[in-house]
Amino acid sequence: MTVAVGPAPPSRQGREQPSLADIVTAYPVATLVVDPDNRIANANVRAETLLNMARSAIVGSDITRTIRMADVQGRFDIWHTDKPLSAYDVQVHAGRTAAMEVDLMVAPIPDHEGWRVVSIHVQSEAQKIAQRRTAGGTRSAMGAAAILAHEIKNPLSGIRGAAQLLESENDAGASTLTQLICNEVDRIAALIDRMQDFTTDRPLTCGPENIYPLIDRAARLASAGFGQNIKITKRYDPSLPFAIINDDALVQVMINLLKNAAEALEGVEKPQVRIVTAFRHGVSVMMGSGKGNAVLPIEILVIDNGPGVPENIRDHLFNPFITGKRDGQGLGLALVDKLVRDMNGFVQHMRDDDAGETTFRILLPMGMG
Questions:
Q1: Which of 361, 240, 228 is closest to 301 using CA atoms?
Q2: pLDDT tens, 86-108?
Q3: Of 102, 129, 260, 286, which has the fewest Cβ atoms less than 10 A away?
């Protein structure tokens, strides 16, 4: 670990509470205050360093000229919004510096219409290397899984066919063994099918749909099978608009999350799962290929009162083959993440130790309906 120590700030007499301006100036992230006309009204020291410009040159300049988006078509969606917005992995030309990849956070100032605070988080070289490794590893794993699935499924069909031929000879002892072979072949084939689900890059066909019949369908399936001993309650927002989704994908996502909750609740005295929906303002993500930003106001929560995910895997929970279960395969949540992303949504995990609850939160784009 390398630690860089900068010069100490000039000392002040007394111990008076610092003003908000002092805090912004000392804030260790490049921060700009933007007025309703998109003019920069204030900038801290970190912003001067990042932009390679003096404060006098930054203040009064147009934010759209000072922070120039590489994706020109998406620029106006960022600088002309009155909602909180976070844009990750954005290519920008900032001030007098070369193009860089940053995360932009835009936050409206309450009770001051049109005024915003913009923070600019630069990705370090270490982060970029880690992301390249992760992306490369994911692509390699997906490619290997696809090849493995193809190579294994071919002989499996032959093995099952041979077992069925043996079973037809009416030998009671052989019949038991051949049935065992068939069951194991079917189990392995089903596992491979699940692996193939997240090795495909084919886009999902999405459209505006009512999510409630789909959630109800998944809940009924859970109650009839793996969740039959669990109390499943639903609290729906009746005014929720349609979401832009693929109906089969959403059902699969909900089944996987409910099954994950059911497995986490094994051994819990009074197992409960709550499904909650709500409309959330101000949540946006950037889309690629010049599509601007997408608003994700449709929220679905799956909450259980289980012991939670082991802390050592929480940061990698949606990666393939990561599991805290002894006989788990680590594919269910990886598929959830992929399907939700394929629907241009977002899924996250949260743990409230005080309440003793685990929450999986899905955010989806809104459709008309």
A1: 361
A2: 777 777 887 777 678 888 888 88
A3: 129
Tell me the mean pLDDT in the region 113-133. 66
Cβ pair 302, 325 in contact under 8 A: no
Question: Which residue shows structure tokens 């998406």?
Answer: 74
Say whether pLDDT at 326 is over 70.
Answer: no
Strand pairing partners for 233? 274
Of 36-40, 166-170, 321-325, highest mean pLDDT: 36-40
The residue ranges of DSSP E strands in 161-271, in sequence order, are 207-209, 231-235, 243-245
DSSP 314-328: GGGTTSTT--SSTT-
- Cα separation, 223 vs 235, in Å, equals 16
**Alpha carbon distance 181, 165 (integer Å):** 12
Q: For residues 38 and 53, what is the distance between their CA atoms, to the nearest angstrom? A: 18
Does the global pTM surpass 0.85?
no
Rg (CA), the chain: 26
